[in-house]
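ok here's WG containing repeat-containing protein, seq below lol
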Amino acid sequence: MSMSEPLLLQIVNQHIPAGATVITIDKPIQHPAVYAADLTGDGMPEISTVYQLNSELYLLILKFVQGHWIKMALTKGLGYGVTLLTAAPVTSTARNNLIVGWQIGAIWSKLAVYEWTESGLMDIAPDDLYYSYAEIVDIPGVHGRDGKVEIALWIHDTGEAYRVEIIRWQQNQWVPATDVYRAYFPKVVKYYEQLTKQYPDYVFYWYYLADAQFHAGSYPAALTSVQKALRFPEAYPSRENLLELENKIKQAMTATAGTHARVTAWLYPVSVRTTSGTPWGYMDAQGHIRLEPVLEDAQAFQPNGLAVVIKNGRAGVINLQGQYVVQPVYDSINSFSEERAMAIDSQGFKMINEQGTVLTKRAYPFIADMHEGRAMFYNENPNQTNGSSSLYGYLDVSGNEVIRAQFASANDFQQGKAVVQIKDQEYALIDRNGNRLATYPYAYVGPLGDGLLAFQKESSGKYGYIDEQGNIRIQPKFTSAFAFNDGQAIVNTAEDYKSNYGVINMRGSFVIQPAYNDIRELGENRYALGKAIDAEQPYIGSLYAIAELNGRILTEFIYRNVENYKHGLASASDGNQTYLLDLSGRPAPGYPRVTGAGSMEVVAPDLIKVFVDQRLSYVDRAGRIIWQQNTIVPLHPPYQVREEKYKPNRDYLVYYPQVDGLANQIEQGKLNAKLKELSQVKPIPADQQLDYTYTGDFDITFYQKQLLQLQLTGYNYPAGAAHGMPTMVYAIINLTDGQLYELKDLFKPDSDYVKVLSQIVGDQIKNDPQYSYVFPDTYTGISADLPFFVTGDALHLYFNPYDIAPYAAGFPTFTIPFSQIMSIINTEGSFWRAFH
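and the structure came out like this:
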């Protein structure tokens, strides 16, 4: 039975009381509140209408019986109008439910979903189901449409912003229809994209855009939007809500990496030892190489799907397809923050966006990462005003100097404010435009934290805390004081080189007594409390226990290292094994333990990144190896280089090479013994606490014909020292007989190679600006046994740190092409002939 609207109205008007009028629904176009649909499942449509009588609303349902329309149901309505009248299969595919939106306010309606039962008409919608706009549609889920409708409710928040919820009737109750979000929310995304273009300075539109993109599965875009919202000085709905959404987005990106949710598989960096070094590439979550290892370094992909890589000594940025979005032309590139990264070249620091566009008008001596739409920078201060050699200011996201360089020091912005130093004994609190909000006449004022700032009255005095107005809230009584976070701050009370850390609340009372060598915030309401391994040598390190914010200690002091908590898990190592802790501070069930010291991170649902004993690998939740770096490098048969590990003590670790395949096993044994010696494999006490750490490793840096060149590196770090001492030795081997070559072996016996090479190096120091760092008058020539290495066309001589240059210069290296010294090279000698 097909009925037009005029016919429906004619029938309805014959059955409503005298004086009653059918309600008009205004949107999407004005039309009378009448609707015909089968509500009983008998194949015949019933007529539903809403009319008004004496300022009251009534819902009337008429049924066609034996040639006549009779009243099937009559119920009193709500509010003063109707915004929705339709029918659709909500509870069953066999029949329709009547859906009515009762208007109770200018932008609010109460949803009613009626079902015909043996007892009559029953509203199955909750009493508090209010909305501003509703859409009734069978939205496809992962298996397509199921024949029943979902109800998308747009619930007004502020301005033109709406919170969108999608519900369905399932197993006799209303439940969120999260499985159809990806199909529906692209429509919501488009709605908020228009609003953010029209009102780019309204934070709540950015929040709802991020939320919609998150529900639509557009995680990189959602992350960009929520981070945009976080840059506004006034958070909405709150900074906590924004951070929670950001965390959910990042968690979803991790959880979906490498699955069907991504068109392009998420990738993870891997290294492969080869005959020409250890290049880096990327694998997928199943351990398959997706981007071949041809890079000198490969960092992890960031949430925006970009990764910093090194190629030919220069840093660039690639996407998940391996395409360069930033060409490798920089010395280094920081991680992206708020869609901006700081790239460094010979000119200095520059700000780039995710497309590689340089945004700054010039290079700076320094630019910090972007925080809340502001990046701190400094210029040299030629006039030495305000007692500082540098002047600090802030750049905006476009690279403009939004706050000119004028401060003696500065901090990142937090919640729209930053602490800066005006001059000696004067600090200030400024807003994002540089306006001064408060002035503090103190020797030191630290960054913001929960409205309090650490300060010193005098430069050698104790630390206390002031509020943002400059009022002293906690009197100076600490030897060091850190920023407040979640209402607590870590402080130190020790008067000597030893540490005595505790945690105070915002009243200055200790919630964790000052009794620890170290305290670290781990996030997620946890601390790591550290007791000194050796009380008389606290700089050696600590053993940690996990504690709650109130100081309740959850574990023994057994961990040598603990990383921050992330989604309820934290990586920890006891020196012998590395594993993940749950929030109880104990090894998390369902995750593996790995022998060695290092860290672990869950990077995909069944993929764990492991960096233990200076080696990267990936395992699944059961501990099965998905990928690990190779330990054998094949050379031309029968030769190979084999990696061996020596770890006699938790503080001493060496990876050293052994060469196999030499015809003479005795010579092979002598060679490998020498390689162990050069690699610093020597007796070390097993259980004794060393007062230093040592790590050693190697690389194959040159291999041609019968010549194999191994670079053996080491780093000795005394406990408590400002820095350690690196070492670098080259083992240059003839694979035929195992001979290790010295510098003299390259030259004719009667040549004065020392004099010739000394002159060349001296000329380079004198004439090449790159060697301007060499100490004046320290170079007096080379020694006969100066360290060296070779490449296919050149000899390279190098000096150890401090020999002729400062520590920061590393190993000053001088390249001499063979063509320049051919007259003294012994081209008939075994060294030269081994690779020619």
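fwiw The mean pLDDT is 92. kinda neat tbh
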